[in-house]
Design brief:
single chain; 304 residues; alpha+beta; 3-stranded antiparallel β-sheet; 13 helices
Length: 304
């Protein structure tokens, strides 16, 4: 199965951060909480395309709260516990020569009273995060930071890898292995309910909504075929419907254009972009019709 050919933006847009990882990390085996996974993705997004070595990367708790749209007053303590826990997490990466085990972080420091975390990657992760030229996947943080289940995030990453083909097939046992669930769900129906269907519900509000097909060997489900759901089949939430109508009425976008935006861009960013486009129009900076200008802005900022 072929992967999508992509290039890493030379300059990152701070308003649309991307976590760029080698596909080997996408399919590595590891155990992690949802909060730890989100911290890791935000940390990866701090790496710049021209970095030739790892640096101590800092994350402000306030920025994390805003990006993940969290409001918990206890999040600062949870972040400290989560970063400490990340020190014991290990990637298990299959290689032609055997199995490579890499500790994800070499150090984690939380600055009391400042709400700042400083984290350092293990140096052996360099081939999987630095100077990537091929076999990598771009994960937009805004699509995943609001997800609740770590398994939903992981399946989102796998779907992103095969975005150009629109599907990927995984043996059930291989998927359970990668998610560190082999031995936990002996019943396929429980695995389906707690992992696959949960991920499907959560990803309905992202650009990686999917359907799936169960492929059997005899009476046993042996493989799962994940298929990206065509845009016209996606059901919008009430909030998304309201935003779609606003894009149509305020900017003159078509139904398909507006639907593509509301499933890929956060409500906060949609409102901000609508305001910016209308302000530019009132100031006389829009030379084309406003709908074409607006689609150009959304396409440039959010890779639509």
């Amino acid at each position: 199965m072929q992967n999508e050919v992509r290039t890493i933006p030379h300059k990152r847009d701070p308003e649309n951060p991307l976590a760029v990882q080698s596909n080997e990390l996408i399919h590595a085996r590891y155990e992690m909480t949802s909060l730890q996974k989100k911290i890791l993705l935000m940390l990866i997004s701090k790496i710049q395309p021209d970095d030739i070595d790892f640096k101590p990367y800092r994350i402000r708790a306030k920025d994390f709260l805003e990006a993940a749209e969290l409001k918990s007053t206890q999040i600062y303590g949870k972040l400290k516990i989560a970063t400490e826990g990340l020190l014991s997490k290990v990637f298990h990466i299959k290689k032609p020569t055997g199995m490579l085990q890499i500790t994800i972080l070499s150090s984690a420091e939380y600055f009391e009273g400042r709400g700042v975390m400083e984290l350092c990657f293990d140096p052996k992760l360099k081939p999987y995060l630095l100077q990537l030229k091929e076999q990598f996947t771009l994960v937009p943080l805004k699509q995943v930071l609001g997800l609740r289940s770590v398994y939903a995030i992981r399946i989102y990453e796998m779907l992103q890898q095969f975005k150009s083909t629109g599907f990927f097939i995984s043996k059930v046992e291989d998927l359970k292995y990668k998610l560190n669930l082999d031995g936990k769900y002996k019943s396929y129906n429980l695995f389906k309910k707690n992992v696959i269907l949960q991920a499907q519900r959560e990803l309905e509000t992202t650009d990686m909504a999917f359907t799936f097909e169960e492929i059997k060997e005899g009476r046993k489900v042996d493989r799962i075929k994940f298929k990206l759901m065509p845009l016209h089949q996606m059901q919008l939430t009430e909030e998304q419907n309201q935003l779609q109508n606003k894009l149509i009425n305020d900017l003159g976008l078509t139904e398909s254009q507006s639907k593509k935006i509301v499933v890929r861009v956060t409500p906060k960013e949609i409102h901000k972009t609508i305001f910016d486009v209308k302000s530019s129009s009132r100031a006389g900076r829009v030379k084309s019709n406003i709908s074409a200008y607006a689609m150009g802005v959304f396409a440039a900022k959010y890779d639509l």
